[in-house]
Amino acid sequence: MKFALPLALLGLATAAHAAPSAARLPDAARLYQNNCASCHGVKLEGATAPSLADKQWLHGTPTRANLSKIIAKGLPDKGMPGWEGTLDKAQIAALADYVAPGGRKATAAAPVVAQSDTVQSGQDDGLARLTLPKGFSIAVYAENVDTARSMAVSPGGIVYVGSRKAGKVYAVVDENGDRKADKVVTIASGLDNPIGVTLLDGALYVAEIGRVIRFDAIDRNYANKPAYKVVKDDLPNDKWHGEKIIKAGPDGKLYIPVGSPCNTCDKDDEVYSKIWRMNPDGTGWEMVANGIRNTVGFAWHPVTKDLWFTDNGPDEMGDNNPSCELNVAPKAGMHFGFPYCHGGVVPDPKFGAGRSCAQFTPPVAKLGPHVAPLGLAFYSGTQFPSQYRNQVFVAEHGSWNRTQKIGYKVSLVTLQGNQEVSTTTFIDGFLQGDDVSGRPVDIAIAPDGAMLISDDHAGKIYRVTYTGNTGK
């Protein structure tokens, strides 16, 4: 859901464009950050969707009329929905002015630029907005981690982080032990949306859209622009749900999803909509689970070693359907319903005919419609109170085209065996009305038991600690 295009490139810019009203541009900047930045980038540089900052346009001249039409109606064949049901005409016009050539220059010159600063200061001061259970605190562990996505933490505490459009892999290092990163080192750049990172036998594996690469002895070499070896280079390179996480399982194999190359389509007999695994050298490619639209998070239960994963439900079925999912696959070969059944209970209007949702494995927890659950982690440390141990935390990236935004938080799913007991909010406040200060992506547990959370919207890593009375 979150990978569809909220705007679109429109053609080679040749026509002059009238300067937009300065008074409305700060609000347009906020609209853009809240609704478009997750796909087109905070600075319009592009992410899963193309750049809006260069001079290349694909769908006509960037006049206000043409931009407004495309924003309102979308480009369904490109995966971009229309926004006319979510934004009003004035908001669409303001966005059209903002993304047009020269639109941001007027923002910089606007006498009311202090309103635009509110967006930035809201990101800088976002911690004050956040709420956590009593006894917990949150701090910024690292900044300037552009489009931070998946994380992997080495036994020595180095945090390796993938990214989206930035095309970089980072090492986030706390050299002096003060529990705040001292430096963010770029290990590699120029990669193709390398969102997935994992550690196995001292090597860092990185998943790009079409391949997996490996950096050996990474803790020793991260600062020296290390060379990499290509492990596998024949993964599907579709852009829609084409980004790939990667996780090392307890069996010593590497697990990689291949998402659906569409909103909803039947590719059940192809490589898509499945979780796969392979040996560390790229051999032994085999299917693990089927019927999965777009998972961007795996974790294994610390005790049972069962595979748990999130899945993002389809768009274009209304604000309240279907629910995104938390699933468990205790054995290989299970089918979780996509594209025939969504959320365990909603038959697909096109592909569900002649099938029953009872044929498929239902989710353990229905997390809510369009909340975009991404990374997850079982709490395996000892710093948090005992009731959190072996329970699963889920990063909800947040909706992008729902009329009323939802998600933008970290949830706690309390389990009894493989059954949901409750789902509650653990961290809230990244969303205030329509203002977004952060979008949680992945969760990792540090060696000292602190929780780390990546945020690709703010380009930060947060650190959550328990400071209450651990004796209770």
What does this entry look like structurally?
12% of the residues lie in helices and 30% in strands. The protein has 472 residues and is an alpha+beta fold. A five-stranded mixed beta sheet has the order 10-11-12-13-17, with no helix packed on it. The protein has a four-stranded antiparallel beta sheet with strand order 1-29-28-27, with no helix packed on it. Helix 1 packs parallel to helix 6 (113-124). The longest helix has 12 residues, at 113-124. The two termini are 41 Å apart. InterPro entries: 6-blade_b-propeller_TolB-like, Beta-prop_PDH, Cyt_c-like_dom, Cyt_c-like_dom_sf, Quinoprot_gluc/sorb_DH_b-prop. Residues 1-18 form the signal peptide. Keywords: Heme, Iron, Metal-binding, Signal.
Measured on Cα atoms, how large is the radius of gyration?
22 Å
Largest sheet: 5 strands, mixed
How are the strands of the largest sheet arranged?
10-11-12-13-17
CATH class of the largest domain: Mainly Beta
Q: Which shape, going by the Cα principal axes?
A: globular
Query: What is the CATH-assigned architecture of the largest domain?
Result: 6 Propeller
Strand content: 25-35%
